[in-house]
Structure formats: C-alpha cells, structure tokens
Amino acid sequence: MESKRMAQPSRVLGQSCSETVAKAKVFVCGAGGIGCELLKSLVMTGFTDITVIDMDTVDSSNLNRQFLFRSQHVNKPKAVVASESAQRYNPNAKIVPHYGNVKDQQFDDEFFSKFDIILNGLDNRSARSHVNRMAMKNNIPLVESGTMGFNGQVQPIVKNVTQCYDCFPKQTEQVSFAVCTIHQKPSSMVHCTHYAKELYKRFFGEEVDIDPEMEYLSSLVTSEDPASWVQKIFDACFSEKILELTSMKDGNWSTGAIPRAATYDFCLQSEELQQSPDNSVAIEAQRVLSVSQLAVLFTETFTSLYSRQKEQGKIPWDKDDQLAMNLTVAVANLRAWNFHIPMKSEFDIKSISGSIIPAIATSNAIISGGIVLEALKILNSKKAAAANGTEIAYNASRVQSLRRFPARIKRKECYIVPEIPPPLNPKCYVCQSAKNVMFLEANLELTTVGGLIKSICSHELAMSHPMISVLTETGDEKLIHEDEELEVNISKPLTTWVPPGQASSHKILLEDMLQELEVEIALQHNASLDPADYKLTGEKALAKQSATSSSEPTATDPISDDEEVVTYHPRKQKAQQAKSGDAKRSKFN
Fold first, then answer.
1. Start-to-end CA span in the chain (Å)
2. Which of 31, 171, 364, 429 has the least CB density, counted as fewest CB within 10 Å?
3. d(C-alpha 368, C-alpha 150), whole Å
4. Is the backbone of residue 538 left (phi > 0), alpha (psi -120 to 50) or beta?
C-alpha cells in the first residue's frame, strides 16, 4: 500500500508521470551539498531506482549543511551514508552507492548506458567534463548544477539540442598578487595566508617557484631532527626577515606602522604576547590565539609534518588536513602580527586559504528542486516521443538561475529566473564530434611528457586516461605515453621525439579512449618560454573569445556544490550583482 508520505507526490504528478518516475534509472554524481538535498528530493518525488557516486568521506565541516550526515558518520564514505539516510524517506527506493571516482575506468560505457538520466552535483571542472563526455557519448540527458553562496543554476544538457558543458571553455578569474606584496609589504590577511601556503608547499607539498627567501629557509634544515632547527626557521621568518625589511625600507609601510619582529624565545617570554585577543569565544575554531600560542603551534606542527613527510613523502596542501591548517593559521597570524594586520581565527583563515565562501543550505535545496523539475520534463518528453513515435522535443526544458538579487521580469521581482537553454556550438569537439586541432607554442626542450599530461591533458582538456602519440609529416605515429609506459617517459622532454628545428612538421595526438576524445596539436618551439608559460590556441581559444560572460553564476562556470573562489572586491561584486538584478530578461517563456 502506498504510504501517506508518497501519496501526495503521486497526486501532484499524475499517474502517467508517476509511473515514468518509478521506472526511471537515475545516476546521481556527487553526494555533497547539492547531492544530499537531491537524493532526498528524488526519493520524495517517487524515484526508486537511483545510483549515487562520490569519492569523498564525511568531514566534520560538512555537518552544518549536508543534513544526511551526523557526527557518527565522520570519516565514512559519503555515498554510502547518504544513500542509507535518504532511503529512510522512502523505504521502497533502491539506492546503490559507489565509493569511488567517477573518472575510474570501471565506470565505462556499459555502466553509463543503463541510465535514463544523469544528475550532477559535482564540485570540480574535471569531473564535470568527464561526466558530460560520457553522457554525450552514450546519448544520455544530463542535468548540470552548481551553487555559489546565494546564487546557483540548473542547466539541462541534451545532445544535439542544447549546449553541452564543453561547448565553450569555462572562464575563471584568477586572483594573483605581486611577489613583493606577499614577501615585503602585505596589507591584508589574504597576503599573509598566501605566504603561509607558499611556505607549507616549499617544505611539505608540491614545489613552488624558486624564491631566495624560501631557498634560505630550506638551507636551515641541517639534520633529521627538526628540534635542532625548527626554531631557527621561526626566527628567520618572523624576526630576521622583518629586521632586514625595516633596515631597507624608507618608512612608507602599507599598514602605516613599522613592522615588528619577534624571536621564538621572545614570544614565549613576553607577557603581552601571551594574552589572547579574545578569550570569550567558546568554539575553538573561531578563537584567535595569542602570539605565544601561535609560536608553540608553529614548532609543534612543523615537527609533526616533517615526521609525517619522511613516512609518506610529499603532502599536498589540503584545507581539510588539520596539520596543514594548523601551520597555515600559525604562519598567517604571526605574519599578520609582524605587519600590524588584525589576526584571524582558524575558521576565517580556512575560508581564505581554501578560497571558499560558506555554502548556503537553502541554495542547495532550491537548486536540487530545480534539478528534479528539469529531470521530470526530460523524462516526460522521452516518454511522449516514444508513445507517439516522434522525435523527442525538449521545448519545456529551461535553464534555471537562482539569484541573490532579484531580476525584474514583467514588473515582478524574481529570484529564480528561467531561460531558454543556450544553443550548442557546432564546432564542439565533444557533443558534435568536430575535429579539434589546436596549436601549442612551448619550449619543447623543457616541456616533459609529465608536464604535457598535467598542463594540457588534465588541466586544459580534462582528460581522464590520456594516450599520447607523436605524428610526423609522413604520417608515422609513435606512441610515447600509455599507462604502462608512464614511468619510462614521464620525465623525458618532447625533443626526445620532436627535434626543435622540425617542430612544425610534427603533431601531438591526444586520445582518451574512455571519453572517445581525440585532439591533434600542432607544435611550435619557443626556446625563450618557461614550461609553465606555454600558449595553447585554436578552436578552444576562438570559442573563448565568443563566449559571453555574466556576473551571475552559471552551471557551466566552475562553481561547485560546496565552495567557490573568494572575490576579494566585495564592493565591486555587490555593484555587479545589483546591476544584474535590475536588468530585464530578453526572453521568458
């Protein structure tokens, strides 16, 4: 017998739609901020055959907005916990969880082809591109989504009907700072946090650009016992360097006061520095530590990370790694104290260093509802076309934009704005299978196979399992990278196969068999370029020029279900949002 909880959706949807919903096979990608709300909305709507995938485990920081998780679920797979929790809303539903990466080869065509629709709640561009390509390859409708604070968007993607996720490149705003600002005249906690992350990466994470200051700090590591030199690093960062700056500068400091130096011993002995700025805060993560406490935190954390690195090797910086955050908090705040910048709590520094703004649970709930609504439209269109023997029409599908500031439509203020999906790009090398030829200008003598994989295959083209070959003018093809040859050629420069003087007569062929993606890259050698300063142009670059930009977030922008790059110009952002909110839409249906 149908439960009372499920009776109401059936009456709203009608018998025909309810039957379609009950039979639909749904694949949910992501069980985070949007994914939790989406799973709940799906089972409450009557969907009973759901598969969900997520590669993350539950973190304590998720509990304030991802409501399917509780404290006892910390460190457990999100997909497993979310499926168990969501199933309580509808015991008749069957939810199959997968704890893994959607880009793994086990999730191939056979896996994807069994679904009627794919619903995305992912948090990174690479995974979104991969799912989009698998959906286009297997001709499965996809609903993309994302939120950014109070803003968000839902975008239906149907092959040969609407624009796919890869039709146009995604435009991102990179916030960068001059090296002299970071190292000599910081004026905000953002600068201090950037310095802290740079120091962490120099010692424990991935390599950073060569810098004299960081090189000097590295030279202080003289033995395997950090107790003999960790205080020297502290004194070099927060005393010696500061004294050096004050002796060189003419007094024109960005914060209006001469920087102050402090050795490790002075921090522990000074009564003034042992006083915490605010002892009234109950939550530890929101408490600002004293300079003395920060000094101890620095040495203890540095020692722990050094011991961990000897066992595990390089430790990439991660905002959810407590040791990494402890060192970041200590360095950033000590640096801020040096330059008379107000110190911050771990909570605040985590938001800055992780480049995030807090996710809004309400935004996730609204967007998940929009995803389900678009899924219903798509499934009903497919059913109607099958019944009538006609081509599927997706006339009802709409891109739904959630805005913090309302748009004025027909004299009404609307926070959820529906728009006709944008047209596809006829030159898209994903959904239209157009031949894609790009042009790479790089220093082939310094660019290695590993650098090509990281910069071009992964970062630029979001390939999951690239295979690299060199094509000669005569049509000969030489395979230089496949999984089994990774260790052999990973550090070899491209000039091993492409002589610099013959670059124009060679091409690089990039293939991803899982995504069925193939890209040819014409080469041009430029000995004056550093490996990181390559120039990639072609159809992708031309599309970027024609892509329109907007101050509102879009599902095709690199926004996530949980976090987004911080805009460090809030006045400008508010002005843009207010302006866009008053703008009238040109189309409405």
1. 39
2. 171
3. 14
4. left
- Number of residues that this document lists for the chain: 589
Q: Rounded CA gap, 147 and 123, in Å?
A: 10
- Are residues 518 and 510 in contact, defined by beta-carbon separation less than 8 angstroms? yes
Give the three-class secondary structure for 418. Answer: strand
SS3 128: helix
Helices (H), 255-321: 264-269, 291-312
- Is 237 one of the annotated active-site residues of the chain? no
Residues 6 or more apart from 480 whose CB is under 8 A from it? 449, 468, 469, 470, 489, 492, 496, 497
Q: What strands lie across the sheet with 94-99, from one edge to the other?
A: 94-99, 49-54, 25-29, 117-120, 142-148, 151-157, 399-409, 412-419
pLDDT given at position 395? 78
Cβ-Cβ contacts under 8 Å for 201 (sequence gap 6 or more): 207, 208, 317
CA 410 to mean position of chain CA atoms: 36
Q: What is the 3-state secondary structure (H, E, C) of 329-393?
A: HHHHHHHHHHCCCCCCCHHHHHHHHCCCCCCCHHHHHHHHHHHHHHHHHHHHHHHHHHHHCCCCC
pLDDT of residue 7: 57
Q: Are strands 94-99 and 142-148 parallel, antiparallel or unpaired?
A: unpaired
Torsion of CA 265, 267, 269, 273, to 10 degrees: 180
- Cβ pair 14, 39 in contact under 8 A: no
| Phi, psi values for residue 152, rounded to 5° | -175, 175
Tokens at residue 464, please? 């999951």
β-pair type (117-120, 25-29): parallel
Strand pairing report for 507-512 and 517-525: antiparallel
Of residues 17, 180, 428, 457, which has the active-site annotation?
180
pLDDT at 292: 93
Task: State which residues of the chain have pLDDT below 70.
Answer: 1-8, 61, 170-180, 206-212, 248-256, 277-283, 354-359, 433-435, 483-487, 538-589
How much is the CA Rg of the chain, to the nearest whole Å?
A: 27
pTM: 0.66
Strands 142-148 and 117-120: parallel
pLDDT at 279: 61
Per-residue pLDDT tens over the stretch 192-225: 998 899 889 888 886 555 566 777 888 888 888 8
